Amino acid sequence: MLTILLLLLGNEIMAQPLRINWQTCFDLSGREIIADIEPVSDGYFILQMYVGEYEDGQILLRRITESGELIWEKQYGGSLGEGAVKISKTNDNNFIIMGATASTDGDVTNNPYPNSYSHWLIKIDSSGNIIWDKVLGNTSKNKMEDGILTDNGIILYGWVAGGGGDVTNYYGGYDAWVIKTDLEGNKLWDYTIGKSSLDFGFCISETSDKGVLLGGSSLVDEGTGGNIECQSHGWEPEAVLFKLDSLGNYQWQRCYGGSEIDNINTIINLPDGYLLGCSTSSSDGDLTGSGYHEGYLPPNYDKTNDIWLVKIDIDGNIIWQKCYGGSQWEGIHEIYLKENGNYLIFGSTCSFDGDVVGNHSMDIYSDDIWIFEIDSVGNLLWQKCFGGLGMEGREMAVYQKNGYVHLIASDVLGLNSGNIDCEYNHYYDDGIWLFELADSTLSVQERNLNSDFQLYPNPADDIVVVEHTVNSKGVLTIFDIQGKIRLVRTVFENKSFINTHSYPSGIYLVKYTDNAAQTVSKKFIINHVK
Which residues belong to any copy of the Secretion system C-terminal sorting domain (predicted)? Predict the structure, then answer.
């Protein structure tokens, strides 16, 4: 009971640790769909897809200052439609745009697969000028979902609806497909994942051995043939994970999920394995005991999705798994590992119950951006919603400026409410809401010092160790949850031992100030074991 109480208190004290530093909106006449954010020397590139009122989509690139002011914007494409997925900086200080095209004119110089959407690579300089472009795919429908730039090439991942062209193997229906090129866009290898049914690729991550993890979903039990061999938990789409080496050779595969729909949407690498960011409507199979929040969406009353986080070891075996959300739809976009070993999750929610508090949406069909933090074993520490009455967060990009400041770009419908305060030119078109989010519990000086300051164990019993490298001399101050000072100590060494035997169990704050008046602080829990 005491541990549960402390976690609840932790949620209460840390309920609102984030603040918006600045925000702005972009809204052309038509629909804008956010794709990615990439830093440049004096600001950021914002990559989007833009669909005009009477046009097919084009790639839209905006260059903005560090405070969100527009410097310039450019569109790329031809007459038959384009899409945008990723932008990454190259070692020669240029940039690779990863997207799609069906065009053979305009900026598309050579498309061997006209009139069908294929992968499109564009290399640009920092001013947005095209250096070269390359089309990869075939004459069937191709959809890129994710892409990464490595030190020796470009890897694109999504799905295809047919064989031929750059697709070496095709098993039927839709297949997940990955292709690697060199840094000039020339094909090195490709690999297909699938059976004769519906198989989709959603996310990719380069591993420490220069291989790749490929996450997606598959109707495993409905298809025949192909190369998916892992055991499914039901007849709905199963979350599927493949590991390839650096040359595109198969190493292993896993299926995760229950009897309902399960997908892998994002992956991050960890020192001891990986964390999978998934969506699910299952509560059995691998999700037994996960805490799935059951719900149904009218009018068809389909089961709704939770965010499902799955920690696995380097061989794909589950270490722990847990669901987050409420009785309506949740989706996940990004995961970041914090310096303290916790995880910061960026997603969206339509719920008003369960783990979700403070949703600004007008109804269960609209999303808010949903951000929450969990500890190293999946316990929810705090959560916060950002948005207004309309739909935000369904399409979203996040850039981690440092461990405490994030730049977020989201879809938005022109309506000021909740956290949104923008000037609009087109109130009834989908625009982009861009804002910088900071940890409000830390000052600027604290953020600079925080990475050099460690406190352990946390939770603690009788002893807390404070270790710092910022300066050997300083002052330690400990506050309780009411703000009362419990200890003031001048320290001269880089490691201090604090006897907490006489402190009541609860939440405390330790603050360190060095002799240059710079400060850093961290929260910790005392939980006396009886």
Answer: 455-526
CA 495-500-501 angle, 5° bins: 135
Q: Where are the domains of the chain?
A: 38-347+368-379, 446-526
d(CA 261, CA 281): 6
Bridge partner residues of 524 (DSSP): 508
3-state SS, one letter per residue, for 24-37? EEECCCEEEEEEEE
What is the enclosing helix (H) or strand (E) of 303? strand 302-303
What is the C-alpha separation between 338 and 201, in angstroms, rounded? 27
* pLDDT recorded at residue 3: 38
Q: What is the pLDDT of residue 11?
A: 38
Report DSSP letters for 357-424, one per residue: -----SSTTS-EEEEEEE-TT--EEEEEEE--SS--SSSEEEEESSSSEEEEEEEEES---TT-----
List the end-to-end C-alpha distance of the chain, in Å, as a whole number: 12
| pLDDT value of residue 129 | 98
Burial 410-435 (b: 16+ CB within 10 A, else e): bbbbbbbebbbebebeeeebbbbbbb
Contact of 143 with 167, CB cutoff 8 Å: no
Model pTM?
0.82
**Percentage of the chain surpassing pLDDT 70?**
91
Retrieve residue 418's tokens: 């909740």
Alpha carbons 444 and 372: distance in angstroms, whole number? 22
Contact assessment for residue 51 and residue 81, using Cβ atoms and an 8 Å cutoff: no
What are 193's two structure tokens? 């994942």
Tell me the torsion sign for CA atoms 470, 473, 474, 480: positive
Beta bridge partners of 177: 158, 192
Residue 395 tokens read as: 């399409």
Q: What is the DSSP letter of 2?
A: H
For the chain, the average pLDDT equals: 89
pLDDT for the residue 30: 80
| CATH architecture of the region 38-347+368-379 | 7 Propeller (2.130)
Q: Please identify every stretch of the chain with a pLDDT value under 70, giving residue numbers as ranges.
A: 1-16, 53-55, 414, 426-428, 440-452, 469-472, 481-483, 515-519, 529-530
Q: What is the 3-state secondary structure (H, E, C) of 201-263?
A: EEEEEECCCCCEEEEEEECCCCCCCCCCCCCCCCCCCEEEEEEECCCCCEEEEEEECCCCCEE
β partners of residue 335: 345
